[in-house]
Amino acid sequence: MGKYWLYLSMAIILTGCATAQQTGEKIADNAQKKVDNSQRQVTTSTDDHSPVPNDPFYAPVDPAPKPKHVIPTGSAFNPSTSTSLYSYEPAYSVGDTVTVVLTESASAQKSATTDMSHNNDYNLDPITVPGGKLTVNGNTVELGMKQSQNFDGKANSAQSHTLSGKITVSVIDVLNNGNLVVRGEKWLVINNGKEYIRLTGIIRPKDVTEGNTVDSSQVADARIEFSGTGDQANTQTQGWLSRLFNGSLWPF
């Protein structure tokens, strides 16, 4: 009888340990689960033709809360926050900031020339019939046609731009491979107008320098906008009638 109670007690203890271990694993999994920031962000931006400051699309991201319950793994090191002794590669999380150094420069030149010519010339001697030339009301019947077409087209295009400066962006997501999805904007008020810089893209932590900066040429899938609003920007925009004459629907 005593052995029966001993075996029953051991079974109850083992069952409780297994339940506690499963519960602890669930807590650890939920605590270490990656937070989906896409639901916490506005996925659409304002119209590019009428940008406004404080666009929710470019707003900073609040960092996810730190896990409260984490089961010890037996190691004092966390691979997600570890650093190398031989190279500088900091660990970033959602909400951190990175400064992007803008060093964009590009130039393009294109020219095309088209020359086409087409000539047609048909002549028919006076029509003769037995007895002489064919006449109508005393006029000799003759046929002839001459046609000429010429087309000459030339096109030249040249474009160049240079952009330099700095903009600090926020980390909105950390991909599974460790790359950082960044996004941000910067507004400047100058006289009667406003100028803004917007940037989105993906950067590698290993490309970030010790000064927490990265070159814009190392930003993948980069979208950089540099424009403005106000009187100065409006003077560089065509009116509706000019756009009609220069549009593709104008037949001439």
Automatic annotation (TrEMBL):
It is found in: Cell outer membrane; Bacterial flagellum basal body; Membrane. Residues 1-20 form the signal peptide. GO terms for biological process: bacterial-type flagellum-dependent cell motility. Pfam families: FlgH. The keyword Signal applies. It is a lipid-anchor. GO terms for molecular function: cytoskeletal motor activity. Keywords: Bacterial flagellum, Cell outer membrane, Cell projection, Cilium, Flagellum, Lipoprotein, Membrane, Palmitate, Signal. InterPro entries: Flag_Lring. It comes from the Bacteria. GO terms for cellular component: bacterial-type flagellum basal body, distal rod, L ring; cell outer membrane. Residues 30-54 are annotated as: Disordered. The basal body constitutes a major portion of the flagellar organelle and consists of four rings (L,P,S, and M) mounted on a central rod. Belongs to the FlgH family. PANTHER family: FLAGELLAR L-RING PROTEIN. Assembles around the rod to form the L-ring and probably protects the motor/basal body from shearing forces during rotation. This is Flagellar L-ring protein. It comes from Celerinatantimonas diazotrophica.
